[in-house]
Amino acid sequence: MISARKARWALGLAVFALTAASFAQWSNPADDVPAYHPSAPLHISALPPILQGAQLTGEHFQYPWQVHVYQQVARVGSVVYQLPCNCRCDRALGHTSLRSCFETLHGTECSTCAQEGFYAYEKTRLGWTPAQIRAGIARREYESIDLEKQ
User: Fold this and answer.
1) 19: how many CB neighbours lie within 10 A of its CB?
2) What's the predicted TM-score (pTM) here?
3) How far apart (Å, rounded) are the C-alpha atoms in residues 115 and 65?
4) What are the distances in angstroms from CA 124 to CA 72, 114, 150?
5) Where are the domains of the chain?
6) What value does the mean pLDDT of the chain take?
7) What percent of the chain is predicted at pLDDT more than 70?
8) In terms of Cα–Cα distance, which of 111, 108, 80, 107 is closest to 96?
């Protein structure tokens, strides 16, 4: 008979293995592309919300661009879900796409995330597909965005 302690360890190990396997960045270890989802989110369960409204105040929102990028990203939430974030927060914070950055305060403190968020919004308005926007992000086209002018 397995002891309760061994059963807890086995359960913990199984949960860890399933969690690790679910991260998009581990789907192709030979590829150095940051994590993203290749298609729009399924409507099976709700995604964590992008910060909005009264959440866009306080010490983390000292500059107008910080509020503005969250507002724009919220308008294209399913698109940014399909985009990688080149700051590599997938490795450091476990983010699964650019959208994750705006579900937390990370988008306020990282210029890469903010520039990519503005880029995604602008290109979506121009009719670009998520795949085209991903290609632009891979070419680092977002780096030309001046946050102070947003």
Assistant:
1) 10
2) 0.75
3) 10
4) 11, 15, 16
5) 29-149
6) 84
7) 79
8) 80
